[in-house]
Amino acid sequence: MSDLGLPTHVLTEIDSPIRETRLAAVDELARLAAGPDLAVAVAARRALEGLTQDDSRSVSAAAATALERTAIRLRPDRVDFGQVAPGTPRVVADVLVDGPPLATATATVTVSGPGLRAMLAGHQLRVLWQPRSEWLDGSVTVRGPAGWAEVRVTGQVPMAAAPMTRTGVEAQMRAVDGLSTYGPPRVTVLPPPPERRSRAGAVALIAGLTALVLLGGAGVAWALVGDRGSGGNAGNAIAEPPLASAPALPLASAAAGDAPAPAPALTREALAHRIASLAKPTVIGTIKVGNEPEGVAVSPDSATVYVANQAAKVLSVVDAGSRKVTSVTLRNTPRFVAVSRDGKQVYVSMYENDKKTGSGVAVVDAVAGRPDHYLKTGLQPFALSVGPDGKVWVPIHSSGRVEIYTAGQNKEDSRIVVPPNPHAVGFSGDLQRAFTANHESNAVAVIDMKSGKFLKAIPVSRAPHSLAVSPDGRRVVVAGYEANAANLIDAVTLKRTGPFKVGKQPQSVAFAADGEHAYVVNEGEDTVSVLDGRTGRLTATVKVGHSPRTVAVAPDGRLAYVSNGADDTISVLRVGE
Question: Which residue spans traverse the membrane (predicted)?
Fold first, then answer.
């Protein structure tokens, strides 16, 4: 590699007097700009920018095309909330951020428009509008090393709506792990927050606050237009642009005796209502998969279910709509499954029954439906997971550590020693904390994700086999396999509550998409215990197949899937409506 970060042969091609050679350099630079090595990608884009000024029109045009191909893109590039009923507290739309890894590596977000907020999490941009004026004609801009892109955001309210407070908005925006949108924007009307007394003084609109938060190597950016009371702290003041006047909407004439026109409803095109989890889920079907299914995971768009079949060396791929099952053959015995945040890769931990040979992770191309490559890990990799930054965290059961891998690379990025022996890992992206369930230590390990350091161990019920973190990152539920109990941990204070009685041999846990309920798979009695996600109170017990192993909840919150190891099936549960 050269001092500029580019291969020497590419630099030679760039400086060549032969046009065809420089064209070959453009192709190579386009490949490097789209690659996972961010330093090389930056250097490649800079070189392409230089080649856009090449004396040859064909070279300059090819370089410009390559820059466009490797730039950040937003789909769609416009969000229209339509007519929003007066009093609507907030509406949300999700936009897909497309492009190479460089596109979102250190991207920042800015907003322009009253009541408009935005948050970037990996390849997904969440746009939130709190209606405060009759018209919205604003924009959200994402900028980074791969250029910039903008979404125009519009909407209107038939009459002036009362200003909304900030109550609950931050909690809504923290739910990064639940974001998943592909195709048209998803718009959700969120319920009003609980009433609270506002501070005295006029409420002013603020625009222009931009904060950048880095989760590992991936950017999570917040752009907010918030409230500021006139009597607030001057140190928190932000530049306030003048509020543009908006034309008044036509109203029915009261003098003419006409009844007031009804408030238009929110445009229903491409909308999805908020899914609320059920206190008592029901089994709505059973799907035959491979021999002895164990790990289960669902794609970010909720359309595909992946099942690791221990006795068949096969990963079952289930179409959630048609329930058609196809198979991907792996070279070793699959155990647990995780899916990348963009849904393009599936990670499968593997090891043989001697718990030594065959240890590794299969990286499966979800589009092609075949293994792309294999990662060599420590002995007995367990329930792996994908972190907020897109990195793959693999608990190594037999070595008392977690190994971390950067997506697209074949080598270990780092490792963290935890108490023996880690079974599962979960994340609070907002708090920058990771948690592992450590079976032999009867403890949950807390890891600082910024420094990669083990912070402390929290004692829990005997033999913790699994844990899950709530979508808002504030609660952790833990299954104590030998205690027939579950615990809850406050992810902020790290205080534990419980134990809460569940079924026999609780093997796996998961939170509902709204965080209001938790599901505990009881291998010893073929049931799933449903807990109140905040209090730990048992709300229902649901019968499933024989020897249930793992539960996964679809990101859209409607269905959950439980693998039944002795039946070679997965049970489909309706958990939200």
Answer: 202-225
Alpha carbons 329 and 311: distance in angstroms, whole number: 12
Mean pLDDT is lowest, of 139-148, 247-256, 282-291, 382-391, for 247-256
Q: Say which residues have a Cβ less than 8 Å from residue 474's Cβ, sequence separation at least 6.
A: 428, 490, 491, 492
Residue 324 burial (C-beta neighbours within 10 Å; 0-12, 13-18, 19+): exposed
Tell me how far apart the alpha carbons of residues 307 and 325 are, in angstroms, rounded to a whole number: 10
The answer to whether 306 and 315 have CB atoms below 8 angstroms apart is yes
Gap between the Cα atoms of 229 and 221, Å rounded:
25
Query: Do 37 and 92 belong together in one domain?
Result: no
Give me the long-range contacts of 449-452 (CB less than 8 A, separation at least 24).
449/215, 449/216, 449/387, 449/388, 452/404, 452/414, 452/416
- Give start and end residues of each alpha helix (H) in 286-395: none
Strand residues in 199-354 grouped as ranges (E): 203-205, 209-215, 218-224, 227-229, 277-288, 293-298, 304-309, 314-319, 325-329, 334-339, 345-350
Contact 392, 411 (CB under 8 A): no
* Rounded distance between C-alpha atoms, residue 320 and residue 303, angstroms: 5
- Specify whether the CB–CB gap between 170 and 190 falls below 8 A: no
Domain containing 416 — which CATH number? Answer: 2.130.10.10
CB-based contact 517:530 (threshold 8 Å): yes
User: Does residue 236 fall inside a structural domain?
Assistant: no
Residues 419, 281: one domain?
yes
Q: Rounded to the nearest 10 degrees, what angle do helices 57-69 and 19-33 cross at?
A: 10
Residues 6+ apart with CB under 8 A from 292: 309, 310, 311, 312, 565, 566, 568
The answer to whether residues 138 and 118 touch, using CB atoms and an 8 Å cutoff, is: no
Residues 157 and 25 in one domain: no
For 276, the token pair is: 């609320």
72, 50 contact by CB (below 8 A): no
What pTM value is reported for the model? Answer: 0.59
Domain total for the chain?
A: 3
pLDDT digits (tens, 9 = 90+) for 430-452: 788 999 999 999 999 999 998 99
Written as one letter, the residue type at 161 is A
The CA distance from 446 to 547, in Å, is: 30
The total of other beta-carbon atoms located within 10 Å of residue 232's CB is 13
Torsion of CA 493, 498, 504, 506, to 10 degrees: -10
Reported confidence tier of residue 73, pLDDT bands at 50, 70, 90: confident
User: Per the structure block, which two tokens stand in for 443?
Assistant: 């403890």
Tokens of 351: 């090891």
Give the whole-number percent of the chain exceeding pLDDT 90: 47
CA distances from 111 to 206, 215, 295 (A): 11, 21, 41
Identify the helix (H) or strand (E) that includes residue 499.
Answer: strand 496-501
Q: Cβ atoms within 10 A of the Cβ of 70, count? A: 25
CB neighbourhood size of 541 (10 A) = 15
Write the pLDDT tens digit of every residue in 270-312: 333 457 899 999 999 999 999 999 999 999 889 999 999 999 8
Q: Which domain holds residue 63?
A: 8-69
What angle is formed at CA 434 by the lines to CA 429 and CA 437, rounded to 5 degrees?
A: 140
